[in-house]
């Protein structure tokens, strides 16, 4: 591929960072959500943990007894723990937990941390000679939520994951920009960059229970059952509502700009059933449901996705009238529901009001602000106008290094830069807040 | 799965069949089609061969120089040749031909036969010490087109495949019930049992050429871009047109009858591009396009499918402006087009006319007819009415063993049995023809 | 790898060969062997077929009821049929036959041919709706036995494989250069080029039966349990007996000549047990035994091997006292026995006698001889001496194109060329025979 | 398999352990070793960390620039991080570190911890938009070193792994019971239970550098190049020296006791070269070397092993005269050397001296000692004799629960139990030490 022939760069062996960016981060555990999926399935517990400073997070699925698991890796850059073991087809339930997290490969620490917590807390003692080995098995995957999404590389670590695990409870799953889906986006290929999140759905058919969960962080757009793109910051001349088939048609037939799309994405998913399935059936369930997700996410499974789906059978229901293929159909529909439920309310662009910028604001706000490493923004006053420039090596959203971009007043007293994406700046308590709200980025003025 | 615990049955070691059903079959090579895809790509040649007595057939894709190939097996029962070799990631073009065939596992003979033809004809001499080994590499897959589809198990064999290979020509690909897609169906899960076939699509974007081909023999239904089921013999109270989402909703929410659906299906596909791709990119292209097919085929990749997709790069175009991910988007749209193009015109049910059956017809038609092994139909007269019974161990479409089913006159002088599916009988030259037309089954009266 | 950057060559589209080299070949079915393994296992039948003109052949293993199978592909160039299906882990016995053949990828025709024979003979009727589908499943692999091994590219084809299948009988397995192992060699990496063949071993432990079979065509040498190279045409200063560890030590520590070793090799193997094993256990058995073969073959599993091993359980014995891991140990020892049993008696070099070449022989033998396509040898008289030159584009063993090599009399009235390998020429009935004996190459004088 | 049908047990949800056994453990970083491999390869740094209280440990291999990696998973229970990603064949160097650890699945925390350290220390900033993504990629595997090996389930955790990573230095690799190999054993299948460790070997051939590393924790025995079992606590009548072939012969031909062998083992290995290799070549190197290890470890790759091998190319040397297959041969020989170098000196059994136990010792030592959770030993005096009983639910080596075993004096003033394995008890500073020395287990008397 394009980047294949790049020479491996030497790592710049900088001195050890003076401050570990993970130190002393504020945690939010089981943060309340505007929407929550409820389900009646005591064996399954869910906990979420977040670092609002990212924002990023982790979602822990814990089963109160050993369950069976299969995995289907399809994307171009999957992050996994113990995947080859899951492929071996042993007919023995062994899984305790599945952990989804942000933080790219760093977030895999959340997966191993849950196994450690099970051990440290004395719930799994490591006895491999028991009939079923009493060793905690925790598997999991991560999404890439760095890059254009936020101005730091904070990741869900051991501390956060263990806290989420210990707070896990049954019956509820928060929807939207929560847990592992805290800074997810969708539609990057087309420049949509819509906020995304985690979704879930649950249904019972006779005695058969099925739950689906997903963290949608897809290169493709989310497509509803009527063929509409569910969330997208469209380009200026794009129709609304936007039909997925029209978007694709336009994309395919148009010029193919090597645009600066988000080259790292991942959608990580879980389907759980209580119906007993043997290893081959469980694997087929994973394949069937994962494939079906190509309907709701278009495109899906690309070289820039890292899609992984886990299928779990709790083996609680030994027999049912539902053939495995139909269980797969039902689970696929629920997975579509789960994907749709992941989408949070999108912030709106704010128009410039035409008002002049108050001189106090101009004076107070000017200065340099440090977000994550390499992410600095410098705001300066030129006459009665304000300009911002990325003063580190990395862009700050629409602010590029070495280029002045003018800021304008909005109707509610904040500053904005008009463009395809919402971009609002506010000053509160000496702190610069970019895009106040769920995905806000906060920095203190540098001395 | 359900059948997993079945005890292996002993093979009934019958005496060698007196007549080899493959002997002396009439061949049709490059049979004319109502619709044909044309393309401008000299390196790629296509040949089709058919045994009308099946009907079943083979489609050979031949490349006039060695090309690169990747494979993605997703279904629950794939038939393949040399698949592990294709997974090894060697960066050397080696493929000559891809062969699709009916005949379930027996049809794999068509794949090996094309390699043999290349050898026997002196085109590949087996010299493995050449810089690029001059050994023919032919890979391929098969569809299951036995069972309810036809009343015999004739398969595309060496003779047919080699004839099709030798007749392969560039620029054209017949659409519909042709070649390997001769007896394909779709929608078996829901009882649709619509006739299907092979489809293709081709486009050029700048210098980039992309062709997609598929033999659609899917458990799921074919879904168009407006969400409609494209072909289905619906149940009596099903709406027309039928929305795929409504069908799935009804299916999921309804009772789950362990209905007698077609448990063997396969959709086998090929995407070809001239853009140079390295092994990892080619594999990702296969994955992306294969996944995208879950939009047009719902469900897809189930335990009862044997889906396989091949991705080929002819390596003719070293550079282009099209990023691999976008090439995948374009190819996915073309694959959807290809799937839609596979659907042939569906025969209609014929109403009973209410007329009495002429006594001459009653007299002439009564007797026993032998189709394939185990498939026998006995027609008998009771008063002025006609009845038919499957007199072998296997059902003959709606005619079950040991059960009399009444035949009625149609308006055009034939006989029919009312029901969900077209079922017409005609007597011509002492031969009983069931469903005269492209998929007709013919049997001579037994003495 | 080295050849990775080679440009794909254009196929020289020659006119169709005037004579198909496969036409009218003499077959040998179940040819008698000097050594034969016997076993008491009625369910398992073995048949061999050979084309002496190659020589090359096929070995068919047939099971009289459906059995379970797993596969382990390890080599750098495996040839397989239906391998992905075998990886799916379904718990249903489905296999009928395993077919090993020479002929490189062309020999895969032997595998599909056995399925066809089962169908054509009415033993498997293609009924996929039976509890266990009554469709023949034949899998198999091939060895590369072209190149330096023989002077033609004849391959085991449908006709030969079906004849071998139909002649299969239980209780016996011919050892040495028989069936698929007809032109196998070993030790090519080191220039050993020792003749090899097919081997087998059988034992019963309590009620547990284990049989192992292998066609040894390895880049590495065969190593016995005392650490000796079992067969090798050593270089002039090599010690005898030759210790494997010394050979490897010498190889590793010496210069690394990019010598003209045999770049295509394959060892294909089969382990069968009557003990019931589930899919995961069967796969582990395949892995354990295949790995163990690295003791008897050194090196093993290289980029120039195409190693494949099949593990079969006939599921006849539901319970035993033998843990699967121990079954693996026992099978591994039997596989080592099988490898050792594959080695045929090696032809000896024949010294030159110092006698003059009789003038009649000089006169009679001179002329040009055509072996397989591209393989021609021209013998010419210069004074009282005889010289031979490869007059096609390919070398004829030690005779290179465009280079005269002198022939000398042996004690028994034949001609020879001294060197590392035996090279004897004889003239019988106008035919030139190179290396009279099991691996002889025969050509008629060209007019 | 045998354990396949076991019902999943309910996890005994005990209250959270009062004391986290990982808290406040003493670390040893880069502990001095009796034997050390030295090498000249600046890009490669190695660090080890140990918790003597286990003992258990971690070995970190760090590369000072991004390198290429392939993985080969063969055993029946592999533990891995990011394995599917490594299988994708991308031609871009991305790896930073490989981490081997004890602690079974819990030890995978060591792998994710090294990625976190790279991030937290500012060496990898998470920038995925760089030409080569600047995200730390750390992969790794673990061995099972619980059960029978030691009396606790302490595992190498984040703290230990990060300390080892930060202390990593080039040029040295400690051999024997060090780092990840701290509590490894070999030969469990046959009851050998010999102490094992980590091994390494290094050589340079022209400009080509090769290093091999392995943590040998194998179900099989270690076999040297002369066919001898290198380390084994043999059964009473076993010959010394013990030939591997005789051991296997005896094992296969004897009765097959379902003995209480160590059902969890793993050998994890790494081969590194500076020669540039493409993804397919690197994968073949992994396969070839991994397969070759079946010579030194017999059996190998069983259902009770979790063998994983990583192959790394630092891509430093673009060209060499060494063909990849020969590089594989050389690396395989070095891997055998590495395996042999892993074996530490084995503690000897100590004979009973026949002396009476001093009354002070009898008095002082009696009481109950707590090792890890569930591991308690009670020593009691009966007249002038001493007896020990496992008073928790788990055995303490030869001491079984509820069964008194008599202790005897050794010549050096300690206590012992005669038997197949060394078992020595000493009392020092109120602490009971079992098997004083590198693998000692220490417990304080319970009040």
Automatic annotation (TrEMBL), chains A, B, C, D:
Keywords: Aminopeptidase, Hydrolase, Protease. One of its GO terms (molecular function) is aminopeptidase activity. It holds the Pfam family Peptidase_S58. PANTHER family: BLR5678 PROTEIN, D-AMINOPEPTIDASE. Belongs to the peptidase S58 family. This is L-aminopeptidase/D-esterase-like protein.
